[in-house]
């Protein structure tokens, strides 16, 4: 076919459009047109304006007009606008030329029809034109717009192609598959053909035309029942078009004939049939393509549409099919009031949005609904519209009305008596307020299984009190108000209705209600538990087991589900499985004596007598009023490595509840586990009230350290004043030394030293206290040159990645660096069953900051959402940076995912465990090189499947494809593909989850604490082997003994035999003390009395008696000397330190020779009492 050239006119035209110029053909209407848009630059060629940039949104046209030269004064104004509200020029009356409104899409977005109705009426356009939604134009005519036309394909940019008798591609899919194209996603996913296919989405219009012509079948799927531009583009290129069938009101059948110019399909089944048909008979497709090609170029090319507009403006006739004057609905279904029209539009827009999101709809109307509403709805092609027609209600000749409007065939008539026989699930039912009042609501709910209830009256026609009354009544049965205009109730909680029916002893109706609830929501735990309970009572134990297990797999911390699961397992004689669930249940209800008794019985049935006895005892203890700590409910009594209890000083810059991220929490967890193992813990940290107030007393936590900066903003800000920093470091040094002196730690566990400095190590290592420095990141907090040079300093990297990173930066730690994984409380996170793998239930848990990658997750979810994939995501975590969460929320709202994504804020560990119980995937999308990422292990332990970017140390947690999935950081497409792959193979998904749960055991916190204890033992062994340390210990102990025993220049010791008679001991002590009290240098003497083999308390009483008798009987006062001290339980080091200070040993008869020998005191020079008086003070410097 030879295509004749047609000319565009040359009148001056101002085009106020809303997209970039490149999206349109080179000439849109005239050779002398000015293109104006917010997405173009103002361009001048010589003395002529070619384009003008306009503001976005609503704007005054006057500044635009002022830029136009007189010779380009518009003869015609064309405004293109849609519901996005990007292009709403005002004050159009300033132009005297005809004004034409070209309607953009009115089949999606927020209030698309009402928005353009309001705008069209506000600017008094001469002509309103739609190119794709003919079926909406009757609203504009009814609203009083003067002239309304339909010009399909007005903006098409055609490219004729030579015929392709042997096309390269079998199938070509047309157009974008984005978030608004739910039906297109649905259809694409159900095409069975494996033939070669292509989608020219990113091609230019000319390149796309070549592909259309080179494809045997071009498949077009409308966004929402509209006549889109792809139809004309394909036909113009000579391609064969297979497109979804639209309603008769859309007008496609007025332009092209089925199987002559193109072909139709009604649903995915007919589509696959048609594909097979034309692949088998390609000559038929090519013949239809030629006919369609000729039809387009003969009757629908752009130049012809331009001419039609000019003819219409000049008062000439144009073809009847483009005029709406005789559109039957606009003649017979007219609203009397403007409010009624607005109400009809709002209801239609609501139904239209449902239609966009669902592959097919079932709707039920009552006869008294405004016929205009019913007539509007028939043009939704995938809506099966049913109308209740009861003869006793025929108060108007509606059947004739439907016939006049030519829509009778689009309505299925039924009667009230037939409703109970229809086993349909109605997507909505629509009825008037009057009908609701007259119907028995309980009858309605029992008879119909529906998802939404629409009250079709304008809200202003219903009293507010009545609305509230019906809302309360409906909410009792699980119907929740969803919209105010129109008034719509979603039946979201059908289980509430089922429970009401159960309370009324209507078992059959209740079962139907619960089953209906599960049809709408297969994850309705209440419905599953109620149906399971009914099955259990009827002795259908296997069915009850299935229902209870599914309920428990959806919420694995649900106590009621666990209790019911235990009951049915016992009924099935599966005590071993019941035991496992009971053990988990008792972590939630540790003081439930009935559960302990049941566990006792299960243990007995499985032959576990010792555990049965323990459970029995706990049951009795609770019965007697002794409550149990939930953490003590570990019936398996897990054991861990035991070491000698130690005094451990713990130092960290921040400490819970004041923390950022997980570093402080990790150190706190280690401290708590060490304490549980019998070690004594003293924590030394700072106080940062801006990170949280300390609301309770903190035993064993000292917040006296100061930080050399602040965490009030991120990144943290170090202080710049060197004098201030030096003052803080001196303060911290004093605090640490005081802690050493008062607490006497044997070892020290140090975490994050940021804003504390490496100087915290100095007082510890000077006092020979071994230091275990646990890194939370692949950095130490100091420079390599500042590395402590001590064998008592050891670093624990939190991953192999962290270890290698530290060594690669030149730290001299090759022999003092090991790996201590952060560790997770595996037992706390383990669940009694795996999660349900029916749909993606995703969680993100962590700081919400860009480097953690939450934006990658929501972008991936947008991809899944656009494909129509079902999922739910919970984002748990807080952020120290403003607007980060707000940005994510705005993104999810803009992409229409707000109902699928919850932002929960910061959660404590128990809340996080509860959240894990309801999810089956953890996405860890971190962008930076993560040190580790403990939350991943916690999630794996809980049975969640880990999908991780695997950066840094986090790569060590899973084996890709075996115990988890990985994807490249910042790659949302790859993450979406990984998530999709799980849904595509649920058996593989379950295998991965099971393997992940097992692998999590490798990172149990008990293993990490074992490593800490082992390293402390090794550090202590190294310390004990060093002579310098022994000398240090000796000097340190001597200093302590001098102070404790009040040693002086003359230190004398006696070894009484405490086994002899009291009278003899008192005589010996009195003789010695009396002699010393009379010595001229008594103020320089200390008498040390050994108490070996004696009772220290009795010895102290005896000495006190002697001193008192001397004072009372002989008037001898020893307050000026000598000092008297008892040598209590002295170890070998004490005696070794003390021996050099003894001046002499006073011989007694008898004396404790065994103690003298055991303590190496026989080397002390002996003397008698008589020799004491001759002894004088030694040189004080000798001490």
UniProtKB/TrEMBL annotation:
Spans of repeat TPR: 525-558
Keyword ATP-binding: no
Residues of the Bacterial transcriptional activator domain: 503-623
InterPro entries on file: BTAD, Glyco_trans_1, TPR-like_helical_dom_sf, TPR_rpt, YkvP/CgeB_Glyco_trans-like
Gene3D superfamilies registered for this protein in UniProt: Glycogen Phosphorylase B, Tetratricopeptide repeat domain
The keyword Glycosyltransferase is assigned to this record: yes
Keyword annotations from UniProtKB, A to Z: Glycosyltransferase, TPR repeat, Transferase
Protein name stated in the entry: Glycosyltransferase
Organism: Oscillatoria acuminata PCC 6304
